[in-house]
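Step 1: inspect the first sequence and its tokens.
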Amino acid sequence: MIDNIAYTPAYRGSKDFTQHQVPTANANGLSAAADDYMERGIDLNEQLIMNKPATFFFRMNGNAMTEAGIHSGDVLIVDRSVAIASGKIIAAVVNGELLVRRLQLNFNHATLLAENSRYASIEITEFSEQYIWGVVTCVIHILEKGLLSGGTVGKTNSNNKKGIHY
């Protein structure tokens, strides 16, 4: 990469690279002054979605997975192309109810484990209606609760005070 920059007739900047080719920032290096104004923003789709046609977004509604860091209101990124394995957090439909649980596979049965002691484990039997929707790959935890209810955050109200407005 450095050889290409050093021997080209004109410096072209760093825009020839994608986010995945530049995993970390080098805060110590020198760069062209124009690069400060040409930086490409972080594309969350590029960073968080591995297989776009097989990826879905869900909003968590419940507290069954709080000890795994998934809270009510969080946005879950679920990828249907990721291989299902024991220990992964999955989204599944069991007896008509959409659930997010940790999958535990044993020799002859499967169990859906909640990451909250107030919720019981769910044994998957051959008689239960179940469908594993996909594997949860990312959790987006919303800190500004105004984003959940559709309010605007940071704008001034009639009293000239910043905050969450509805």
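Step 2: inspect the second sequence and its tokens, then contrast the two.
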Amino acid sequence: MTAEMVAPAWMHTQISAEQYDSWSEEQCAGIEIVDGMVVVSPSASKRHNRLARLLANALDAAAGPDWNADTDFDVRLQDVPLTNRRPDVTVYRAETIDLTPTRPEHVLLVVEVVSPGSETTDRVVKVDQYAKAGIPFYWRVEQAATGVPIVYTYVLDPATKAYRDGEMFTGTMKATAPFSITVDLGDMRGPEKSPLSTSGR
């Protein structure tokens, strides 16, 4: 059975922002839109989801009252042609929690956890898209063979609309930007659940 036989027709035609905004939450779940075309995201592993959740929790605690950190919702990078990405973790202005869609000017940091099949998208394509959209910080989490994740951080150069390399962390992450946060990445490997440590900005 071919994909064309089971996929709905709207997955094969370019769609507008107005069309997308009329869709139900069920239609929008598990997809991204790139240049108006639907891109289906594969189901994430439990390890992937745990990494995203633990980082979101730590970032939310460190961010203070002005920023929220949440997982798995659309960020509207552009309206024409429509491009929506759904980062694994997004840090955004708390005052915009009820605004839809979330736009780059609302966002401080996006995090992508690399999974099999998303390597080129997370390492190359999204880096360029998030930078051109003006999102100040990008973190990429690689799931290393050792079981301890590696976090690569990037900081936007506003003049060139490109990211420059920031710090790289493995083991314990002690980032100072966009705010001070300490996370023991070793806690993400297995069932033992130690408290995450955060410090003020």
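Step 3: confirm your contrast with the notes below.
Helices lie at 3-6, 17-21, 25-28, 46-63, 119-132. Residues 1-5, 190-197 have pLDDT under 50 and may be disordered.
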